Amino acid sequence: MASLQWLLQLSSSPFLLFAFILLLLKLLFNQNSTKTKPNLPPCPSKLPIIGNLHQLGTMPHLSLRRLSNKFGPIIYLQLGQIPTVVVSSAKLAKQVMKTHDLALSNRPPIFSAKLLFYDCTDIAFAPYGAYWRHIRKLCILELLSAKRVQSFSYVREEEVARLVRRVSESSYPATVNLSKLLGFYANDNLCRVALGRGFSHGRDYDRHGFQKMLEEYQGLLGGFSIGDFFPSMEFIHSLTGLKSKLQSTFQRFDRFFDEVITEHLDPDRHKEEHSKDLLDVLLDIQKSESNEINLTMDNVKAIMLDMFAAGTDTTFITLDWAMTELIMNPKVLETAQAEIRKVVGDRRVVLETDLPHLDYMKAVIKETWRLHPPAPVLLPRESMEDVTIDRFDIPTKTRIFVNVWAIGRDPESWENPECFAPERFVHSSIDFKGQDFELIPFGAGRRSCPAITFGTVSVELALAQLLHSFDWELQSGTEAKELDLTENFGITMHKIAPLMVIAKPHFP
Ligand code: HEM
C-alpha cells in the first residue's frame, strides 16, 4: 500500500517521475554492465606492464601455436598496450574473415609502418574506409585484373628466360646460389611491370643496392618490434635506434621513386597503350580529371611501395621453399618433372598456356603454401566494433592475428600435417582462393591479397620452367636433412641460409 502511495506521488510530479526513470535506467545500465563484462577468450598469465609480450619470443608464429595448443584455438593476449586476439583454426579463421569480415576489416596503426610508408596512404596499411576502398578498387581494376596480368605475360616469359640463363651460367657441375637468383627474378618481374624495367643487373643494382634496400625494409616491417606495442611511448623507437633506421630506409625508397617518376614524366618518353607499366597508369590517372579521389604524388609512391613490400618477397619465398622441399623430397621432384616434361615435350620454353595442364605441380605449390605461408600470421586486422567469435567477446579496437602457419599444420584439418605430400591435393577440391579456410596463404575476405592472379602465375611459370630445364641435386656430401631451414621472422618470413644446389641442364 505504501509503495502504491509513493507511485501516486511520483505521477503527480513530472520532475520526480523523470528523476525516477533516470534512476531506473542507471540501475538497469549498471546491472547490464556487470552482466556484459566481456567474456574474453582464454588468456595465459600476464606480467605487469608488458602483459604477455615475454611469451612471443623471436618466432611469434611458433610461440603462438604453443599457446594455442595449451589454451585453445582462440586466445587473448595483452601485448604491451595492445589487446590482441590470435586465432589458430580454420573454423575460427572463417569467422574472422567471412562472418565478421567487415567488422574486422580495419588495419591497426602500426608505428613502424607509419614511418616506412607514406603515412599509411598505401593499400596494405590504410585503415578501412572510403580511401582504402577507392585505392584498392583502382589497383584491382587498372593494375591487377586478370586482363592486365595477362597483358604482362611477355615480361614473365622474358624474366623466366633470364632466370634460366643465369642458372645455366653457373657452369654445371658447380653449385649455384638459387635463392639469390630467385630473388632477382621476383624483383625484376615486379619492377618491369611496376616501373618499366628491372634493377637487378648492371649499374642499377649497385647504385640502388636494390636487393639490400628491400631486405632491410622487410626486416623493419615486422610489426613485432617492441615500440609497436607501446604506441603512447614513441620514444622507445628512438631508444632502440629503430626510428632512425626506418627513416633512412624510407628516404632511400623515396629518392629512388623520385628518380623513376622523373624518368616517367620525361615528355620524350613514349609508351604504347598496351605496354604501359603500373607507374604510367597511375600517372595517367593522376592527370585525368574524372577522378573520385585526387591522387597525390605521395599516393602514387605509396602504391608503388606497397607493390614492392607485398609483391616481391612473397613470390621469392614461395619459389625458394618450393625448390627446397622438392630437393628434400626427390620422389615428389621426379613426379613433378615427369608431368611437366610430358606436357611440354621437347619444346624448351614453358608457355603460360601449359600451366592449366600441370595439376601435380600446382599441388606442389599448394603444399608449399600450406607448410610455408609467406606471411605466417597475415597482416594484422583490428575490430571496428564489438563482435562475438565462438562465444567469446572481442571488444572494439582489438588487434587480430590469424596464425595461418599454425592452421596449415593443424591435425584437425590435415592428416600427417608435418609431412610434405602434394598428393593430398590431387583429388581434393581445396584451393587457396580464400574459400577454404584451412589453406589461406593470400588471406581471405575484404583484406585478402588483391594480386592473387599475378602472384600465382609468376610462381607457376618460374617453377615449371626450372623443373623442365634442369635436373636438381645437392652438392656431393650434403644430405637433405643437413640443410639449414632456419627462418627469419617478419611480416613475411624467409629462410636465412640460401639454397645452394647443382643444376644439370636437361637439354644438351
Ligand atoms: C605468392 C605471392 C603472394 C602471396 C602469398 C601474398 C600474400 C598476401 C597476404 C597473406 C596478404 C595479407 C592478407 C590479409 O591480411 O588477409 C597480402 C596482402 C596484399 N598483397 Fe599479396 N601476396 C602475394 C603477391 C602479391 C603481389 C605480387 C602483390 C602486388 C603486385 C601483392 C599485393 C598485396 C597488397 C597490396 C596487399 C594488401 C591488401 C589490403 O590490405 O587491402 N601481393 N598478400
UniProtKB/TrEMBL annotation:
<keyword id="KW-0812">Transmembrane</keyword>
<dbReference type="GO" id="GO:0004497">
    <property type="term" value="F:monooxygenase activity"/>
</dbReference>
<keyword id="KW-0479">Metal-binding</keyword>
<dbReference type="GO" id="GO:0020037">
    <property type="term" value="F:heme binding"/>
</dbReference>
<protein>
    <recommendedName>
        <fullName>Cytochrome P450 71A1</fullName>
    </recommendedName>
</protein>
<dbReference type="InterPro" id="IPR002401">
    <property type="entry name" value="Cyt_P450_E_grp-I"/>
</dbReference>
<dbReference type="InterPro" id="IPR001128">
    <property type="entry name" value="Cyt_P450"/>
</dbReference>
<dbReference type="GO" id="GO:0016705">
    <property type="term" value="F:oxidoreductase activity, acting on paired donors, with incorporation or reduction of molecular oxygen"/>
</dbReference>
<keyword id="KW-0349">Heme</keyword>
<keyword id="KW-0408">Iron</keyword>
<keyword id="KW-0472">Membrane</keyword>
<comment type="similarity">
    <text>Belongs to the cytochrome P450 family.</text>
</comment>
<dbReference type="GO" id="GO:0005506">
    <property type="term" value="F:iron ion binding"/>
</dbReference>
<dbReference type="InterPro" id="IPR036396">
    <property type="entry name" value="Cyt_P450_sf"/>
</dbReference>
<feature type="binding site" description="axial binding residue">
    <location>
        <position position="449"/>
    </location>
    <ligand>
        <name>heme</name>
    </ligand>
</feature>
<dbReference type="Pfam" id="PF00067">
    <property type="entry name" value="p450"/>
</dbReference>
<keyword id="KW-1133">Transmembrane helix</keyword>
<keyword id="KW-0560">Oxidoreductase</keyword>
<keyword id="KW-0503">Monooxygenase</keyword>
<dbReference type="InterPro" id="IPR017972">
    <property type="entry name" value="Cyt_P450_CS"/>
</dbReference>
<feature type="transmembrane region" description="Helical">
    <location>
        <begin position="6"/>
        <end position="29"/>
    </location>
</feature>
